[in-house]
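Materials and Methods. Structural model of Quinone oxidoreductase. The 324-residue sequence of Quinone oxidoreductase from Anaeromyxobacter paludicola was retrieved and submitted for structure prediction as follows.
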Amino acid sequence: MSRAIRFHQTGGPEVLTLEEVEVGEPGPGQARVRHQAIGVNFVDTYHRTGLYTLPLPAGLGVEGAGVVEAVGPGVAHVRAGDRVAYQGGPPGSYSERRVLPADRLVKLPDAVSFEDAAALMLKGLTVEMLVRRVHAVKPGETVLWHAAAGGVGLIACQWLKAIGARVIGTVGSDEKAALARAHGCDEVVVYTREDFPARVKALTGGAGVPVVYDSVGKATFDGSLDCLAPRGMMVSFGNASGPVPPVSPLTLGVKGSLFLTRPSVMAYTADRGELEQAAAALFALVAAKKIAAEIGRRYPLAEAAQAHRDLEGRRTTGSVLLLP
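The predicted structure was written out as tokens:
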């Protein structure tokens, strides 16, 4: 048996319950992992509320790090005793132990701790996808990154500085502004008191930026389009303020023949080879000390509901972890 967070109906954090569940032996292509650290992400709140639907009752969580306890038939790339981490696959990482598809697991280098891996896997691979493959950021290029002091944002600021880009970030407070600057953000806009499209235009001499990375969603989408240079790319990858309403393609034309994309890290790492390449790129920057995990808060597994309240209430910075 294992303790796990489950929910039987969608709703607020109060629907999350700690339950005893049967784990069992891994089947073909599967592995059983004992978690040492678990990542908490906004996508978990989307599953909980029903914005992204799951068959109920369901587990929660798509990121974790731990030790392989057993593998099923046909699994050769990991074995019992290996230190591993993962992102993606069926939700269920909010647990002490679980069985999951082994092809989601990557081995951890000795230099990467369990907590760092749980803080970096989903967010770090998201950043890798966004700055290397969705829009390949070039040295000297200026980009706009919303929520620059969040878990993804702090990793992005570091990665973009390693590339040699100029980063304009938006944040909600002076405290978060200082944190973003400390992680490589060149220009910080406190959107709660500043008009961020006007500031971005001023900071770029009226030209706008070639790419906007926006995980906030509804509250920033329209303003983000106004920050783009002609033929710029709007990258919408989150809904922290709510989902973006439908957009007419005519709007993209009027504002400068803009591109709009909604990438998913799950789609960009579905191929095993791409997953390994992305993880290798992330771990190389960690080993070179160009990226460090910023762990804002740690909660016991049983306090997952409070972790969600704090995350949705914008009371967290950096990565949030659950410890089993």
